[in-house]
Amino acid sequence: MNLRVACSSDLSAIVRIYNQAIRQGQGEGDQPVTAFREPLTVSDRREWFDRHDAGVHPIWVAERTGDVAGWCSLSPYRAGRAALRKATEISYYVDVRHRRNGVASALVDCALRTAPDLGFDTVIAVLLEGNRASVGLLKQCGFAEWGRLPQLVAFDDRRFDHLIYGRHIGPLDDSIADVAG
After folding, report:
1. End-to-end CA distance of the chain
2. How far apart are CA 86 and CA 153, in angstroms?
3. For the whole model, what pTM was predicted?
4. What is the pLDDT of residue 27?
5. Is the CB of residue 63 less than 8 Å from the CB of residue 1?
6. What domains are there in the chain, each with its CATH number?
7. How many CB atoms lie within 10 A of CB 133?
8. What pLDDT was estimated at residue 181?
9. Residue 162 burial (CB < 10 Å; 0-12/13-18/19+)?
10. Residues whose CB falls within 8 Å of the CB of residue 10, separated by 6 or more in sequence, listed in order
11. CB 58 within 8 Å of CB 5
12. What 3 state SS string does the chain have?
């Protein structure tokens, strides 16, 4: 498996994989894994992609056998709030053909190893209740549940909790340590 920073030509594969996740939660009794309800286009995601500067908030892709098998991004957490500048939100999705082959683990590990060099000391994951695969992966990677917004997510007549998982990854800033200490 090859992990690398995504380039513009990867956007169609990123959107294809994300649309798999959107469709995953649309069947009767299916557990949704994203709050988007309609498939997205490359045009829909172009601005999102362009906002991800590799030196600050990168997007990575995992390639297997010449195919984009998954992707992971670090995004601003509550953009514009200076006191939250050391926190970043992680997202990751894996192509259905490549799941359970270590793709997500490799991508999350890459993000966690890189985040401190980008100036982050905290990584936040926001996910939907019942996404057992992501909860298991996050716990395996040292994340803990930090918050739960009950019944916030609405899919027609079904409601789900919105979960917040987090992990501190770097030494706390001196001012934070002084307050905590």
Report:
1. 42
2. 27
3. 0.89
4. 56
5. yes
6. 2-180 (3.40.630.30)
7. 14
8. 41
9. middle
10. 59, 61, 68, 71
11. yes
12. CEEEECCHHHHHHHHHHHHHHHHHCCCCCCCCCCCCCCCCCHHHHHHHHHCCCCCCCCEEEEEECCEEEEEEEEEECCCCCHHHCCEEEEEEEECHHHCCCCHHHHHHHHHHHHHHHHCCCEEEEEEECCCHHHHHHHHHCCCEEEEEEEEEEEECCEEEEEEEEEEECCCCCHHHHHHHC
* pLDDT < 70 stretches in the chain: 25-30, 171-181
| Under 8 Å between Cβ of 71 and 92 | yes
Average pLDDT over the chain, rounded to whole? 90
Kind of pairing, strands 122-128 and 2-5? unpaired
Instruction: Determine contact, residues 74/29, Cβ cutoff 8 Å.
Output: no
Give the C-alpha separation, 79 to 163, whole Å.
19
